[in-house]
What we know:
This protein is an all-alpha fold. The protein is built from six helices and no strands.
Amino acid sequence: AAAGLSYVGAYVINTYKSYDNFLQDKYALLPAVIIICVAVVMFIIGLIGCCATFHESRVGLGLFLAIILVIFIAEVSAFVLGFVYREKVKTDVQGTMRSVFEKYDGKNPESTVVDYLQEQLHCCGVKNYSDWTTTQWFNSTGNNSVPQSCCQQEAKNCTGHLDHPQEL
C-alpha cells in the first residue's frame, strides 16, 4: 500500500507540471506531498506491525493498534473537511482558471496550457464554450470563434466558429 501511495504522489507531482499555470496557489502540491508522507508513515507502521507480530509482543501490537486508530480518525477528519470545503476549492479553482483564460492570446505560455488542457480534458472554457465570449482574446479577434483546441477530435474541418457549436 505504501508503494502504491508513493506512486500516486509522484504521479500527481509529475502531472502538476502540465497544469501549473492553472494551479498558481503554492499549496496546490500539498496533497501530493501529504500522500508521499503518508506512504512513508504507512511503511514504518507496517514494519512495526510485522516486527510486533514476529516477536509476539503485546506492547508492539498495542502500539500498532493505537497508531491504526489515530490514522482512522485522521482519515475521517480529512473526509469531513474535504466535504465541508469542497465549494470553496471549486470556486478558487474556477477563479484561477478564469484569470488564465483572460491572459489567452494564442501565443504566450498560458495559451499553450489552456490549449493543452482543453485538448486533454475534451472541454471548452471553464464551464462551456460561452465562457470564451467574455475574454479579451475573443473580443480582439472579432471572428466570433473560440480556440481550435475547443474542437472535438472527430470534427475534421472545425474552425472553432460559434455558428457550429456541435463541433465544440
